[in-house]
């Protein structure tokens, strides 16, 4: 496809450090996506309670949010590659621990205790992610020149989505045919691969922040974001869309009780949004959304909300796959625009702290959204809760379009 993969659309891939980092990211994201599917299946198998799936999201979100600002501060002060490496080692330890406990009968006799153990290990994953997010985002600026940030954001998102397609699908099939032990062992192998690959990544010298006290450093980052209406608007808009559009957290329940499918079907459902996102990313590599970034961001999130409502109303497995894939395609438009906004408008010495705020706004909203979805499903019922979330997404987009004209009219 020469017209699609032109020299301009693959510019950031010409830098070896960035290419190697993408391979590292692929292994990392594949492992985390697999782990999410496997732990969701285990927890629901042990509890049969949608709220327990939401609590697993909360178990990861609270630690991640608690350390995110500290992670951003450190990412602007010390070597970002070392932070990423430390996080990967911690995640590898967590995965190996779960595998060891499953081998020794975790969940067979005391499912309540086993669930609490999983929550504890998920919390450790949240801590690692709270440090990984700011360092990983800021690290990209040391791998490619500023003029290629938009293209790098596109490929960074594309690799994430490709891994998010394969990870859940592989996890579902492995869980269905080989069981949770082999599944978690595979996660451990992928994390070990990410550790090895990261050691080969070469990067430019990091511009470090001034040696101010940690409290002042954190408030400097917060003050910067609050005084940038485009950045603040993009973060808030995406956060509420993810928060209320969190149907993915309830997929184990939809798979079992509405679509009548097993772990293999659940893996495909989890992979569908990322499959749509990959297709959209390939389109966006050629047709950039940035010339009318603000308008495209609002349209994409509005369409995302409609897809969530469509998924909630579907009782057909293939139609549900279609709506999930479409939701992923539109969500990826917002991801690329938001990532580019942050990279372009943030000074290098503040990238870690601003990315930490992004982690708190967006990254943890996935898990908080999972809790909101689980709680809403308990109170409203499964389908009405997802319809409610989709409608709230539509309301937030409409409200933001009227209230934040700087974001609506921004372009690059």
Write structural notes for this entry.
This protein is mainly α and 412 residues long. It has a single domain (11-207, 214-408), classed as MFS general substrate transporter like domains (Growth Hormone, Chain: A, Up-down Bundle), CATH 1.20.1250.20. The chain has helices spanning 16-47, 50-75, 80-103, 111-139, 149-178, 180-198, 214-226, 229-244, 251-258, 263-286, 293-313, 317-345, 351-380, 382-403, 405-408. Helix 1 runs antiparallel to helix 6 (180-198), helix 3 runs antiparallel to helix 4 and helix 11 packs antiparallel against helix 12 (317-345). The longest helix has 32 residues, at 16-47. The radius of gyration is 20 Å and the shape is globular. The mean pLDDT is 81.
Proportion of β residues?
A: under 5%
The helix-and-strand class reads mainly alpha
Stated plainly, the CATH topology is called Growth Hormone, Chain: A
Q: Count of DSSP E strands?
A: 0
CA-atom Rg in angstroms:
20 Å
Low-confidence stretches: none
What shape does the CA trace take?
globular
Number of domains: 1
Helix content: over 70%
Distance between the termini: 26 Å
List keywords for this structure.
412 residues, mainly alpha, Growth Hormone, Chain: A, 15 helices
Spell out the blueprint of helices and strands.
Elements: H1 16-47, H2 50-75, H3 80-103, H4 111-139, H5 149-178, H6 180-198, H7 214-226, H8 229-244, H9 251-258, H10 263-286, H11 293-313, H12 317-345, H13 351-380, H14 382-403, H15 405-408
């Amino acid at each position: 496809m020469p017209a699609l993969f032109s020299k301009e659309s693959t510019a950031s891939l010409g830098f070896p450090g960035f290419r190697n980092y993408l391979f590292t990211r692929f292994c990392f994201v594949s492992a985390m996506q697999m782990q999410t599917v496997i732990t969701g299946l285990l927890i629901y198998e042990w509890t049969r309670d949608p709220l327990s799936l939401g609590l697993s999201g909360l178990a990861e979100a609270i630690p991640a949010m608690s350390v995110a600002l500290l992670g951003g501060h450190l990412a602007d002060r010390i070597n970002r590659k070392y932070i990423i490496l430390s996080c990967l080692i911690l995640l590898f330890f967590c995965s190996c621990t779960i595998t060891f406990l499953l081998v020794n009968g975790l969940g067979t006799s005391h499912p309540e205790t086993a669930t609490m153990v999983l929550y504890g290990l998920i919390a450790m994953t949240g801590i690692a992610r709270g440090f990984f997010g700011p360092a990983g985002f800021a690290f990209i600026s040391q791998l490619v020149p500023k003029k290629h940030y938009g293209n790098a954001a596109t490929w960074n998102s594309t690799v994430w989505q490709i891994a998010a397609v394969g990870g859940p699908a592989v996890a579902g099939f492995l869980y269905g045919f080989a069981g949770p032990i082999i599944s978690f062992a595979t996660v451990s192998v992928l994390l070990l691969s990410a550790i090895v690959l990261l050691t080969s990544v070469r990067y430019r010298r990091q511009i470090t922040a001034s040696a101010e006290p940690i409290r002042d450093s954190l408030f400097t980052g917060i003050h910067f974001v609050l005084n940038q209406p485009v950045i603040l608007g993009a973060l808030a808009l995406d956060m509420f869309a993810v928060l209320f559009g969190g149907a993915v957290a309830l997929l184990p329940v939809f798979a079992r009780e509405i679509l009548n499918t097993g772990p293999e079907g659940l893996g495909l459902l989890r992979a569908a949004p990322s499959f749509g996102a990959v297709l959209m990313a390939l389109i966006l590599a050629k047709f950039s959304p940035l010339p009318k970034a603000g308008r495209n961001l609002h349209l994409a999130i509005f369409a995302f909300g409609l897809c969530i409502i469509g998924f909630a109303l579907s009782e057909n497995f293939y139609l549900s796959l279609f709506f999930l894939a479409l939701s992923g395609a539109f969500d990826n438009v917002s991801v690329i625009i938001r990532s580019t906004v942050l990279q372009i408008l943030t000074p290098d010495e503040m990238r870690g702290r601003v990315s930490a705020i992004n982690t708190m706004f967006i990254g943890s909203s996935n898990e908080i959204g999972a809790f909101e979805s689980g709680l809403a499903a308990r109170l409203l019922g499964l389908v009405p809760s997802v319809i409610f979330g989709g409608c709230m997404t539509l309301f937030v987009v409409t409200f933001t379009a009227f209230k934040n004209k700087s974001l609506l009219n921004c372009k690059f």
